[in-house]
Amino acid sequence: MAFDKAYYDRYYGDPRTAVTSRAEMAQRARLIAAAADYVGLPVRSVLDAGCGMGLMRRPLCQALPRAVYTGLEASDYLCRRFGWQQGLLQDWRPPRRQRYDIVVCYDVLQYLEREAARRAIANLGRLCRGLLYCSALTREDWEHNCDQRLTDKVPGIRPVAWYRRELKRSFVPLGCSLWLHRAAPVVTWAMDHVA
Protein backbone atom coordinates (compact mmCIF):
# COMPACT_ATOMS: atom_id res chain seq x y z
CA MET A 1 0.00 0.00 0.00
CA ALA A 2 1.34 3.45 -0.92
CA PHE A 3 1.19 5.91 1.97
CA ASP A 4 1.47 8.90 -0.34
CA LYS A 5 -0.31 12.23 -0.72
CA ALA A 6 -3.34 10.60 -2.39
CA TYR A 7 -3.77 8.16 0.50
CA TYR A 8 -3.70 10.90 3.14
CA ASP A 9 -5.91 13.20 1.09
CA ARG A 10 -8.53 10.45 0.88
CA TYR A 11 -8.46 9.08 4.44
CA TYR A 12 -7.62 12.28 6.34
CA GLY A 13 -8.12 15.32 4.12
CA ASP A 14 -11.55 14.75 2.56
CA PRO A 15 -14.36 14.98 5.18
CA ARG A 16 -16.55 12.63 3.08
CA THR A 17 -14.03 9.77 3.22
CA ALA A 18 -11.98 10.59 6.34
CA VAL A 19 -11.51 7.75 8.81
CA THR A 20 -11.13 10.10 11.79
CA SER A 21 -11.33 13.77 12.74
CA ARG A 22 -9.26 16.24 14.71
CA ALA A 23 -11.95 16.21 17.40
CA GLU A 24 -11.83 12.40 17.73
CA MET A 25 -8.04 12.43 17.93
CA ALA A 26 -8.15 15.17 20.57
CA GLN A 27 -10.54 13.02 22.64
CA ARG A 28 -8.13 10.10 22.30
CA ALA A 29 -5.20 12.28 23.42
CA ARG A 30 -7.15 13.50 26.48
CA LEU A 31 -7.93 9.87 27.40
CA ILE A 32 -4.25 8.93 27.19
CA ALA A 33 -3.16 11.93 29.28
CA ALA A 34 -5.89 11.29 31.86
CA ALA A 35 -4.84 7.63 32.18
CA ALA A 36 -1.22 8.68 32.77
CA ASP A 37 -2.39 11.13 35.42
CA TYR A 38 -4.66 8.53 37.01
CA VAL A 39 -1.88 5.94 37.42
CA GLY A 40 0.55 8.63 38.61
CA LEU A 41 2.96 8.30 35.69
CA PRO A 42 5.25 11.32 35.28
CA VAL A 43 5.41 12.03 31.55
CA ARG A 44 8.46 13.65 30.01
CA SER A 45 8.45 11.85 26.65
CA VAL A 46 5.85 10.67 24.14
CA LEU A 47 6.46 8.54 21.05
CA ASP A 48 3.67 8.56 18.48
CA ALA A 49 4.58 5.46 16.45
CA GLY A 50 2.90 5.71 13.07
CA CYS A 51 1.87 9.30 13.77
CA GLY A 52 0.53 9.93 10.26
CA MET A 53 -0.64 13.53 9.93
CA GLY A 54 0.22 14.16 13.59
CA LEU A 55 -3.38 14.76 14.63
CA MET A 56 -2.60 13.83 18.24
CA ARG A 57 0.49 16.00 18.53
CA ARG A 58 -1.11 19.29 19.57
CA PRO A 59 -3.67 17.82 22.01
CA LEU A 60 -1.04 15.56 23.61
CA CYS A 61 1.37 18.48 24.00
CA GLN A 62 -1.41 20.63 25.49
CA ALA A 63 -2.42 17.92 27.96
CA LEU A 64 1.20 16.98 28.77
CA PRO A 65 3.08 20.31 28.58
CA ARG A 66 6.31 18.93 30.10
CA ALA A 67 6.59 16.09 27.59
CA VAL A 68 8.72 16.05 24.46
CA TYR A 69 6.77 14.63 21.50
CA THR A 70 8.44 12.44 18.89
CA GLY A 71 6.58 11.41 15.74
CA LEU A 72 7.69 8.20 14.01
CA GLU A 73 6.39 7.50 10.52
CA ALA A 74 7.14 5.16 7.62
CA SER A 75 5.71 7.43 4.91
CA ASP A 76 8.35 9.35 2.94
CA TYR A 77 5.69 11.90 2.01
CA LEU A 78 4.71 12.67 5.63
CA CYS A 79 8.28 12.71 6.90
CA ARG A 80 9.18 15.32 4.27
CA ARG A 81 6.04 17.32 4.96
CA PHE A 82 6.11 17.30 8.78
CA GLY A 83 9.67 16.39 9.70
CA TRP A 84 8.85 13.17 11.55
CA GLN A 85 11.48 10.55 12.38
CA GLN A 86 11.40 8.04 9.55
CA GLY A 87 11.41 4.35 10.28
CA LEU A 88 9.50 1.10 10.53
CA LEU A 89 8.09 0.31 13.95
CA GLN A 90 9.32 -3.28 13.84
CA ASP A 91 12.96 -2.16 13.40
CA TRP A 92 13.25 1.42 14.68
CA ARG A 93 15.69 2.20 17.45
CA PRO A 94 15.68 5.63 19.11
CA PRO A 95 18.82 7.63 19.77
CA ARG A 96 20.67 6.67 22.95
CA ARG A 97 18.32 3.72 23.55
CA GLN A 98 15.70 6.11 24.86
CA ARG A 99 12.54 4.72 26.38
CA TYR A 100 9.32 6.71 26.32
CA ASP A 101 6.88 7.34 29.15
CA ILE A 102 3.95 7.12 26.73
CA VAL A 103 3.88 5.33 23.38
CA VAL A 104 0.95 5.71 21.00
CA CYS A 105 0.45 3.09 18.29
CA TYR A 106 -2.83 3.98 16.60
CA ASP A 107 -3.97 1.90 13.63
CA VAL A 108 -0.53 0.76 12.50
CA LEU A 109 -0.25 -2.95 13.28
CA GLN A 110 -2.95 -4.13 10.87
CA TYR A 111 -0.81 -2.88 7.96
CA LEU A 112 2.00 -5.27 8.92
CA GLU A 113 2.27 -8.93 8.05
CA ARG A 114 2.07 -11.26 11.06
CA GLU A 115 5.80 -11.59 11.78
CA ALA A 116 6.45 -7.88 11.26
CA ALA A 117 3.54 -7.10 13.61
CA ARG A 118 4.96 -9.49 16.19
CA ARG A 119 8.36 -7.76 15.97
CA ALA A 120 6.68 -4.35 16.19
CA ILE A 121 4.84 -5.35 19.37
CA ALA A 122 8.08 -6.66 20.87
CA ASN A 123 9.69 -3.34 19.95
CA LEU A 124 6.84 -1.47 21.65
CA GLY A 125 7.82 -3.37 24.80
CA ARG A 126 11.40 -2.07 24.44
CA LEU A 127 10.41 1.50 23.56
CA CYS A 128 7.78 2.02 26.26
CA ARG A 129 8.56 2.37 29.95
CA GLY A 130 5.08 3.42 31.06
CA LEU A 131 1.78 3.63 29.21
CA LEU A 132 0.97 2.28 25.75
CA TYR A 133 -2.08 3.27 23.74
CA CYS A 134 -2.44 0.56 21.09
CA SER A 135 -5.35 0.33 18.69
CA ALA A 136 -5.65 -1.78 15.56
CA LEU A 137 -8.42 -2.82 13.21
CA THR A 138 -9.26 -6.38 14.23
CA ARG A 139 -11.17 -9.06 12.39
CA GLU A 140 -14.08 -8.54 14.78
CA ASP A 141 -14.10 -4.80 14.06
CA TRP A 142 -13.99 -5.40 10.31
CA GLU A 143 -16.94 -7.79 10.51
CA HIS A 144 -19.12 -5.93 13.02
CA ASN A 145 -18.04 -2.37 13.81
CA CYS A 146 -16.38 -0.40 11.03
CA ASP A 147 -17.90 1.23 7.98
CA GLN A 148 -16.27 -0.93 5.31
CA ARG A 149 -16.93 1.70 2.64
CA LEU A 150 -14.56 4.09 4.45
CA THR A 151 -12.01 1.56 5.70
CA ASP A 152 -9.27 0.01 3.63
CA LYS A 153 -9.20 -3.75 4.10
CA VAL A 154 -5.62 -4.70 4.67
CA PRO A 155 -3.98 -8.13 4.73
CA GLY A 156 -3.00 -7.94 8.41
CA ILE A 157 -6.46 -8.02 9.92
CA ARG A 158 -6.16 -10.47 12.80
CA PRO A 159 -8.44 -11.45 15.67
CA VAL A 160 -8.33 -9.32 18.81
CA ALA A 161 -7.15 -12.37 20.78
CA TRP A 162 -3.91 -12.40 18.76
CA TYR A 163 -3.13 -8.78 19.68
CA ARG A 164 -3.98 -9.33 23.32
CA ARG A 165 -1.77 -12.41 23.54
CA GLU A 166 1.20 -10.61 21.97
CA LEU A 167 0.80 -7.42 24.01
CA LYS A 168 0.48 -9.29 27.32
CA ARG A 169 4.12 -10.37 27.04
CA SER A 170 5.21 -6.87 28.09
CA PHE A 171 2.03 -5.08 29.14
CA VAL A 172 -0.95 -5.32 31.47
CA PRO A 173 -4.31 -4.36 29.88
CA LEU A 174 -6.15 -1.42 31.47
CA GLY A 175 -9.00 -1.14 28.96
CA CYS A 176 -9.85 1.49 26.32
CA SER A 177 -6.81 0.36 24.27
CA LEU A 178 -4.51 1.34 27.16
CA TRP A 179 -1.74 -0.96 28.35
CA LEU A 180 0.68 -0.49 31.24
CA HIS A 181 4.23 -1.77 30.86
CA ARG A 182 4.94 -4.52 33.36
CA ALA A 183 8.03 -2.60 34.55
CA ALA A 184 6.30 0.80 34.75
CA PRO A 185 7.37 2.84 37.79
CA VAL A 186 3.82 2.98 39.20
CA VAL A 187 1.54 0.83 41.32
CA THR A 188 -1.93 0.02 40.03
CA TRP A 189 -4.75 -1.81 41.72
CA ALA A 190 -6.00 -5.19 40.56
CA MET A 191 -9.44 -3.78 39.67
CA ASP A 192 -7.78 -1.37 37.22
CA HIS A 193 -6.64 -4.32 35.10
CA VAL A 194 -8.82 -6.01 32.51
CA ALA A 195 -9.10 -9.74 33.11
Give the rounded overall mean pLDDT: 92
Which sequence of SSEs, written as H and E, runs from N to C? HHEHEHEEHEHHEE
Q: What fold name stands as the CATH topology?
A: Rossmann fold
The number of helices is 7
Question: How many distinct domains?
Answer: 1
Poorly predicted regions are none
SS-based structural class?
alpha/beta
For the record, the CATH architecture stands as 3-Layer(aba) Sandwich
* Main pleated sheet: 7 strands, mixed
Q: What topology, given as strand order, has the largest sheet? A: 3-2-1-4-5-7-6
Rg calc: 16 Å
**N- to C-terminal distance:** 36 Å
The CATH superfamily name is Vaccinia Virus protein VP39
Helix content: 25-40%
How many beta-strand runs?
7
* Global shape: globular
Give the C-level CATH assignment.
Answer: Alpha Beta
Strand content: 15-25%
